[in-house]
Amino acid sequence: MIRVAIDGPAGVGKSSTSKALAKYYGFAYLDTGAMYRACAWWCLKQGIDLDAEQVDERVVTEAVGEFFTGDHFDISVDPDAPAVSADGEDISEAIRSSEVSTHVSKVSNIIPVRNVLIAAQRAYIAREADKESFSGGLGIVAEGRDITTVVAPDAEVRVLLTAREEVRQARRTGQAAGGVGAEDVAVRDRMDSRVTNFTTAADGVVTVDNSDMDFAHTLDTLIGLVDEAI
Ligand code: C5P
Question: What does the record list as GO biological process (predicted)?
Fold first, then answer.
């Protein structure tokens, strides 16, 4: 059983490479950013004011707790069909809107919210890593901001995927042309780095800077790291 933890800032290409890596090995794929995005989407839907100077942390935490414990939230960890839903409605696209992207850090900065999500993520990783998965592979690729350090510091493979800011901004702007919400990645990174460290690799975490790598090269590099661990 192999657990692969991948952290990194916005716009580095974590999701596409992690998904491809999971497919390559037939592992499950957990997009933890999608979980935070789903929480922000849910809060906005409940009419919670995430633009307030002082976001009401108690109200957000309660809403997120209800989202998870009330069985509203669901996520598919199939790398061929990753999807997030709320009350059976597929919200995979809605959570990529610029509205969600610009508000998600307000939610993920709240420590009690993080604790709910971290516990849920650990449970997914423990369950999925141990069951024969989509093409018979035994393992999971989980990506986010605190997977290598907090959620799964004991993962067999731990990677910090990074790239220069101007490269990441250009990638995100390119995605925006394809329908993904446009945004300033630096603003989100600044907010996110208050509660997570994805700029320097923790002990035992391998840094992969893909500023000058294309997608195939990045994927090959990650495959090399996983092969070493198998
Ligand atoms: O990975 P993605 O850019 O979709 O993540 C969306 C947001 O979710 C991040 O900007 C961050 O606020 C939050 N996040 C987090 N911890 C993680 C994954 C994502 O705080 N492990």
Answer: pyrimidine nucleotide metabolic process; ribosome biogenesis
